[in-house]
Amino acid sequence: MSQPPLGIHVRSSHPTFLSLIQDVMERPDVEPFGTGKDGVAHVLLDFPMTWALYQLEALDSVQRARTLVVTQSTHPAYLDSLASYHVSGVASSTDTTRIVAGLYAAASATRGYHYASPLTYMELRTVRLILMGYDTRRASVDLGVTPKTVNAHVSNVLGKLGYESRAHLVVGLLGVDPQ
Question: Which of 47, 60, 65, 167 is least enclosed, having the fewest CB within 10 Å?
Fold first, then answer.
């Protein structure tokens, strides 16, 4: 007895980005735009980068548990910052094997992601807010800590990842060549 195809719902900032995972969507064991509520994997295409951060903010924990984020980044701290939303998984758009495994994990609301950077959860939350353009005061309100604590987290992140400033951090995580 064969298993029914895996249903997936894909969200992206623009329909043209669907082509980035076209080979996955054409697999015989995957049914794009699946109809069932249970067993359906939700996919967020993080194109342009940081788009998924804003989308994840709007999802509740149940929706996040069934979500795989596919991004063009390969930086461990960026991937971990996406995963810190407690999503099912995060995969680079060029890693078809990880995308397929992530789809199955998301369909069953199983976490399939393993953190790869040296950052703590609070440092990852701080990084998310920096990537979203928050200043120290706004980040402190969002995190429920003092501005001094936010600055300490930022300092720890910069030291652990080897960046000199918040601007260098953003440039490094987004993979932009500053030259």
Answer: 60
Distance CA 83, CA 114 (A): 9
The pair of structure tokens assigned to 12 is 């992206």
CA distance 117 to 172: 14
- Domains of the chain plus CATH, in order, are 6-107 (3.40.50.2300), 121-174 (1.10.10.10)
Question: Within 13 Å and on the Cβ side, how many CA atoms surround 140?
Answer: 11
Query: For residues 126 and 143, what is the distance between their CA atoms, to the nearest angstrom?
Result: 8
